[in-house]
Write a structure and sequence with these properties.
Length: 136
Amino acid sequence: MIAEHRKQRPGNETLRTQVDLWMGNWEREKAENERAVEAAAEAAEGWTLVTGKKGAGGSGKSVSASGVVARGIAKNKALGLGAAAGVVKHKAQVDDFYRFQKREAARDQLLLLREQFEQDKQKVAKLKAARKFKPC
């Protein structure tokens, strides 16, 4: 009874070696899958995936699989949909960047709403005038 129990539950060292082997295999498979996805993306869409180095040993530079060093392209954006997913799209001009721009935009919006309100008021007055009862 005790022998069967011990066979079913190996010691900590045995478990540690089994888990280390399993994790090593899993990490290897994950890295291979990522490389396959990157290679497929490069082949299909004609662009090179650039990823950042992580960890204390990383220099902060981004390096592609072929060794090309670049900066500023996030892996998540590069793996997005579309042919130009790795390209960061910027607006030509950022609206309302400064506080005074926000105030001016709010003021302009308020003036526009007031003008529309006055126009609507006049329209309602015309409709009311047209509804007057005129017995013949």
